[in-house]
Amino acid sequence: MTKYARYEAHGETAYGVVEGDTVRQLTGPPYEVHEVTDHIHALSDVKLLSPVVPSKVVAIGLNYKSHLGDRATPKVPEPFFKTPSSVIGPGESVVIPRDAIAEGVKVQPEAELSLVIGKRCKGATKANALSYVLGYTCGNDISARDWQGNDLQWWRAKSSDTFTPLGPFIVTDLDPGNLHLIGRINGKVVQDQVTSDLLYDVPTIIEFVSRVMTLEPGDVIMTGTPGAPGDIHEGDVMEIEVEGIGVLRNPVTTE
Ligand code: MG
Hints:
Blueprint: E1 3-9, E2 12-19, E3 22-26, E4 36-42, E5 47-48, E6 57-61, H1 65-68, E7 78-82, E8 87-88, E9 94-96, H2 98-102, E10 107-108, E11 111-117, E12 133-140, E13 143-144, H3 145-150, H4 155-159, E14 164-171, E15 180-185, E16 188-194, H5 202-210, E17 220-222, E18 237-242, E19 246-254
Parallel strand pairs: 6-17, 8-14, 9-19
Antiparallel strand pairs: 1-2, 1-5, 1-14, 2-3, 3-4, 6-7, 10-13, 11-12, 11-17, 12-14, 15-16, 15-18, 18-19
The structure holds magnesium ion (MG).
């Protein structure tokens, strides 16, 4: 099991391997050819960033029974996109756009097990899908509900700037089918599920998406959210926790 981070130290951005409460610098992203250096920082001395810079973020909708409400179970996985420009790291503020404030749009967090692709992937099968995965991280699929319901596309509902917090680490060799997933707002648990409840599991999602679309190293797939998370407002603090990975914490502010 390896834990990767991306961080800023002394004004420079680097990737590293987390060892206890320190991080050891790599010469490049963990999904590219790299060397392990002897350059070590205390984790408390660096600013953690999104652990990955994806070329695309694929997110799966309606993938837990507890989130469906009165909607039917999808017959196949239901992917949509979040833009790379909406990705932020641990500790960064989610900024509710001024138009959402003006229109009284409801904004909600979504706790999601998220995976990072480790090698170029096209035409994966369920049997070999996990061999394309570098590891797993916590994702928060911030959603502006009224825009999601009323716009033709989910472009701003799901991809307004700051709407895709990821982190704090990428952890390898987890069983994605059996992880505890928790969402909190201001310390109160609002989502609590295990990933064995996913309607479409990680291998099925990778097979389905990669039938038609090449997944590149560093790309992220967010696997869907359970239950009914509450609304967020300026001053709130959201936490997404996935067993074995850690806690992704982001405050909420307004534009
Ligand atoms: Mg979602």
